[in-house]
Amino acid sequence: MKSVRENTQPKKRRRASNGAPGGPSWAYEVAHPDASADLAPVVGRNLRRLRVQRGLSLEKLSKASGVSRAMLGQIELGQSAPTINVLWKIARALGIPFSGLITTSGAGGTVVLLASQAKRLASHDGRFSSRALFPFDEPRRVEFYELKLAGHSQEKADPHPPGTMENLIVAQGTLEIERPGERHLLATGDAILFEADVPHAYRNPAPVEAVMYLVMTYAETVG
């Protein structure tokens, strides 16, 4: 994601800049406090484990991800709620799928993901939201999400790791997908497959909310 604002204390809706210029003036935060409380310690443990495995100091990871050293330290200690923007930056810097930071150990077999217990990440104004439709049991090469974008809104995304593909279908409303040199307008029922390792944007040109389902496939599983 392209935001340069970081939400360090979402319950008070405070935001701290990481100092990068040119970003929009909004930040990402967890839509529901309970979801934040559940994910914060999980992300913290995973971040510390992955950082240590790669022999990275907080300072080196900060430079690679663009996330402040203070923010990384707070996340590792479970003192800062996970956010879409920050998680994407860290995952990209570590070379892992997004799910690598939110995974928890779990058993195999059938898993029911109740909508009432879903972990939804959203923008601070609630105009964009993302819900993972897969269990946080282990990092995976394919991830499945439900996305919602309010009318006359847009979401910009930084490049994902090389080889990442996005396969998206519009379940409700209208959506415009923009990549360098191309733009595609999709109506309800339309689908698109594109390489997501370049800057891209989702735009809702209509006044009603757009609902999309996204399958993200990484080039390889990174352990």
Ordered list of secondary-structure elements with their pairings:
Layout (H helix, E strand, L loop, with lengths): L4 E5 L4 E4 L10 E3 L2 H21 L4 H8 L3 H8 L7 H11 L4 H4 L17 E4 L4 E5 L9 E8 L3 E5 L7 E8 L2 E5 L2 E5 L4 E5 L4 E5 L5 E8 L6
Antiparallel strand pairs: 1-2, 3-4, 4-5, 5-6, 6-13, 7-12, 8-11, 8-13, 9-10, 9-12
Helix pairs in contact: 1-3
Q: Can you put this structure into words, describing what you see?
A:
The protein has 223 residues and is of the alpha+beta class. It folds into two domains: 5-102, 434 Repressor (Amino-terminal Domain); 141-217, Jelly Rolls, CATH 2.60.120. The protein contains five helices and 13 strands. The chain has helices spanning 33-53, 58-65, 69-76, 84-94, 99-102, and strands at 5-9, 14-17, 28-30, 120-123, 128-132, 142-149, 153-157, 165-172, 175-179, 182-186, 191-195, 200-204, 210-217. The strands form three sheets. It has a seven-stranded antiparallel beta sheet with strand order 3-4-5-6-13-8-11. Strand 9 (175-179) and strand 10 form a beta hairpin. Helix 1 (33-53) packs across helix 3. The chain starts with a strand and ends in a 6-residue tail after the last strand.
Order of strands across the widest beta sheet? 3-4-5-6-13-8-11
Ranges where pLDDT stays below 50 over 5 or more residues in a row are 1-37
Q: Could you state the CATH homologous superfamily of the largest domain?
A: lambda repressor-like DNA-binding domains
**Content-based structural category:** alpha+beta
How many E strands?
Answer: 13
Level of helix content? 10-25%
Biggest sheet character: 7 strands, antiparallel
- N- and C-termini, Cα separation: 23 Å
- What is the overall silhouette? globular
Helix-strand sequence: EEEHHHHHEEEEEEEEEE
Q: Might you state the CATH topology name of the largest domain? A: 434 Repressor (Amino-terminal Domain)
- Give the count of structural domains: 2
Count up the helices: 5
Mean pLDDT, to the nearest integer, reads 78
Strand content bin: 25-35%
CATH arch. level architecture of the largest domain: Orthogonal Bundle
| Rg on CA atoms, Å | 17 Å
Reading off the top of the CATH hierarchy, the class of the largest domain is best stated as Mainly Alpha
